[in-house]
Design a protein that fits this description.
By secondary structure, the protein is mainly beta. Helices cover 0% and strands 66% of the residues. It has strands at 2-10, 16-21, 24-30, 41-55, 59-68, 78-84, 87-101, 105-114, 122-136. The strands form two sheets. It has a five-stranded mixed sheet, with no helix packed on it. It has a four-stranded antiparallel sheet with strand order 2-1-4-7, with no helix packed on it. A hairpin with a 7-residue loop joins β8 and β9.
Length: 143
């Protein structure tokens, strides 16, 4: 499982509560001089939650989250090391996400498993985030 959300609560027994799953982000600008096109901003206060079940996997891996902008440009990725043991167990990762937003459209977050032995990355899933811009012009236009 992988999802973007606003907040994650982790109880003492390890159970996660994922609060406000987010698949759309609307940036607004209010006022008479609100720009026609969305100005760049930094997306903050988001977390990526990834739950992995090991099954037959064993050993050390990396979980990599690589954002891709709507135009196909790869943004800086984050990676966290994990150790997996075979069986029904697994692990939950909570990774804070901060990334630059410069255009409207769908941002994709590729969730991959990387092995240290030179094997190719294994894409587990892709998580979309739709970014929209909503200018709200009010009052007289500036002279």
């Amino acid at each position: 499982m992988a999802a973007l959300c606003e907040k994650v609560l982790q109880e003492q027994d390890g159970v996660l509560s994922i609060i406000r799953v987010i698949d759309q982000l609307t940036q607004t600008a209010v006022g008479p001089d609100a720009p026609e096109h969305m100005p760049p901003f930094i997306a903050q206060n988001l977390s990526m939650v990834v739950a992995i079940k090991a099954d037959q996997a064993r050993g050390r891996y990396g979980v990599r989250i690589r954002p891709e902008a709507p135009g196909g440009i790869q943004l800086p990725h984050v990676e966290q090391a994990v150790t997996l043991s075979p069986g029904p167990g697994g692990m939950n990762l909570v990774m804070p996400m901060t990334f630059p937003v410069s255009e409207e459209g769908v941002y994709w977050f590729d969730v991959s498993l990387t092995a240290p032995t030179g094997q190719p990355d294994r894409l587990l899933t892709r998580v979309p985030l739709q970014v929209q811009y909503s200018p709200q012009r009010s009052g007289p236009a500036p002279p």
